C-alpha cells in the first residue's frame, strides 16, 4: 500500500530489502557495525564484504546514530547503518526515533531520492512490532512535513504478519490527515 504525503510517496511493501532498487537501504545495525545476523547478515551476503570494510572504519556508533557506506553489489547505491534500541535497555522510544530521523537526514544530506527501511529493532533486538511500527511511521510522517529531496520512503517488511501490522498502523495514522 502507499500514500502520498506532500511530494513524497510513503510505501509499505513485503519483501527482501536487499533486492530493492532504491537509492539507499537502511541496515538494522548494532553498535559495533559487525554485520552478523538478521537483515545485516542478508545485506552482507548480497552486497559483499566491501560494505563491512567501510563499516569497520566508522565503528563504533551509539543507539540512535546512523552512518552511510556504499552498497557493493546491491542494486541500491548506498547503505545507511542505523542502530536501534535493544528492548529493555531504556530510552527505547527516543533511540528508535533518532535512528529513523538520522537516517532520513543522512539521505537528504546526500541528495538521495528514495530510501527503504526494515523493521529496525524488531528482530534480534526484541522490540514489539506494533510499538516499533507506530514510532517509525510517525517519525517519517513528521519528517515529511519539512522540505526534503526524498520522493519515496519505503518500509520493507519480511513477513505477512509484519506487513499487516505496518499497513494497519499507516492506515490509522493517515486517516486523520
Ligand atoms: N529484508 C527485510 N527485512 C528483513 C530481512 C530482509 N532480507 N531479514 C530480516 N529482516 P534484525 P534488529 C527483518 O534482527 O532487531 C544484527 O546482528 C526481521 O524479520 O535484523 O535491529 C545486527 O548486527 C526483523 O523484522 O535487527 C545487530 O546487532 C527486522 O528485519 C542486531 O542484529 C529487524 O531484525 C540488530 O537487531
TrEMBL record:
Identify the residues that the record assigns to the Macro domain, covering every copy. Answer: 1-174
Where do the coiled-coil regions begin and end?
none
Question: What is the protein name stated in its UniProt record?
Answer: Appr-1-p processing domain-containing protein
Species of provenance: Desulfofervidus auxilii
Amino acid at each position: 500500500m502507499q500514500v502520498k504525503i506532500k511530494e513524497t510517496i510513503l510505501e509499505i511493501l513485503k519483501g527482501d530489502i536487499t533486492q530493492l532498487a532504491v537509492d539507499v537501504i537502511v541496515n538494522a545495525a548494532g553498535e559495533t557495525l559487525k554485520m552478523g545476523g538478521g537483515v545485516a547478515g542478508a545485506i552482507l551476503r548480497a552486497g559483499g564484504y566491501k560494505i563491512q570494510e567501510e563499516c569497520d572504519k566508522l565503528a563504533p556508533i551509539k543507539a540512535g546514530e546512523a552512518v552511510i557506506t556504499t552498497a557493493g553489489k546491491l542494486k541500491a547505491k548506498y547503505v545507511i547503518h542505523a542502530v536501534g534500541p535493544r528492548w529493555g535497555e531504556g530510552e527505547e522510544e527516543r533511540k528508535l526515533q533518532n535512528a529513523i530521523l538520522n537516517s532520513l537526514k543522512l539521505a537528504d544530506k546526500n541528495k538521495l531520492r528514495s530510501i527503504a527501511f526494515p523493521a529496525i529493532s524488531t528482530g534480534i533486538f526484541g522490540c514489539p512490532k506494533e510499538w516499533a511500527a507506530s514510532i517509525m511511521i510517525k517519525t517519517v510522517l513528521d519528517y515529511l512535513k519539512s522540505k526534503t529531496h526524498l520522493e519515496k520512503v519505503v518500509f520493507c517488511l519480511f513477513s505477512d504478519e509484519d506487513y499487516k501490522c505496518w499497513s494497519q498502523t499507516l492506515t490509522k495514522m493517515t486517516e486523520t490527515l
